[in-house]
Amino acid sequence: MTINNTLFFKPATSIMHLVLILIFFTLSVKSTLMAQNFERLRNDMVEKQLKNRGIQSKVVLDAMRAVPRHLFVPHNIQNYAYHDSPLPIGLEQTISQPYIVAFMTEQLHPVPGMKILEIGTGSGYQAAILAQLGCEVYTIELLEELAVGAEKVLTELNFNNVSVKCGNGYAGWPDEAPFDAIIVTAAPEKIPEALIEQLKEGGKMIIPVGPVHAVQSLKLITKKGRRITEEELLLVRFVPMVE
Ligand code: SAH
């Protein structure tokens, strides 16, 4: 009886093992090829969209090369993740164009350990770029579904230096203030007072300011004593910062 069982089951078991090994092998080859393809697209993005347009910071370029942007966009549009454009991330919100992410990041001169507040977590991609640069990132998102999604992908990618909070960015994050820098990725009509208060002396804030669904001015604010200085950098189009 024992012998019969052995004779009967062994070939079937080995065929099943073989099929499983083949499936596993095919899937892992497929995912390696896809990862290599995305890596190539990322390198092209850095060369053509960022370096060619004047992004110079080596650390920022390295971070843009390292963070897998395709994991921050919906699955069905992953192939467009490295295009030179913003993309929809659901709930009428967008992930910014790679150039804008790199440009805004470079303006803050991020260094490891810098404490940065982001308003408008969205997909979590901008937060991931800052975290990749070694900053301590605090990010606020109004829409719970996006906050939860961003936190999930950031955790899966082991970014332990990002804290995500669902809330209204107009109030900032008083418990964690002051911040070395603030980055706002939705556009208010005027600069929120609480954010200026929560900026460290000498700290910088980059923020698009202007009317809803129109062209806005991307401003670099520097806090000096009780005064602020404003520099206009670019004309941009961000989703509105909702009151
Ligand atoms: N930085 C994001 C893109 C931001 S899109 C990324 O890398 O993907 C702008 C985001 O700001 C949207 O997700 C929107 O829901 C959010 N937002 C709008 N008004 C807000 C507010 N008052 N407080 C916090 N987040 C806000």
Description:
It is a single chain. The chain has 243 residues and is an alpha/beta fold. The chain has a single domain, classed as Vaccinia Virus protein VP39 (Rossmann fold). It has 6 helices and 9 strands, in the order H-H-E-E-H-E-H-E-H-E-E-H-E-E-E. It has helices at 2-51, 58-66, 98-107, 125-132, 144-156, 193-197; strands spanning 87-90, 93-95, 115-119, 136-141, 162-166, 179-184, 199-209, 216-224, 227-236. The strands form 2 sheets. It has a 7-stranded mixed sheet with strand order 5-4-3-6-7-8-9. Strands 1-2 form a two-stranded antiparallel ribbon. Strand 1 and strand 2 form a beta hairpin. The longest helix has 50 residues, at 2-51. The radius of gyration is 23 Å and the shape is elongated. It starts with a helix and ends in a 7-residue tail after the last strand. 38% of the residues are buried. The structure holds S-adenosyl-L-homocysteine (SAH). The site of S-adenosyl-L-homocysteine has 23 residues, from strand 2, helix 4 and strand 4.
Helix content class = 25-40%
The gyration radius over C-alpha positions equals 23 Å
CATH class: Alpha Beta
Strand order of the largest sheet: 5-4-3-6-7-8-9
Uncertain runs with pLDDT below 50, 5 residues or more? none
When the domains are counted, the total is 1
Provide the list of bound ligands, each named once.
Answer: S-adenosyl-L-homocysteine
- The CATH topology turns out to be Rossmann fold
Could you tell me the mean pLDDT? 92
CATH architecture: 3-Layer(aba) Sandwich
Oligomer: single chain
Structural class: alpha/beta
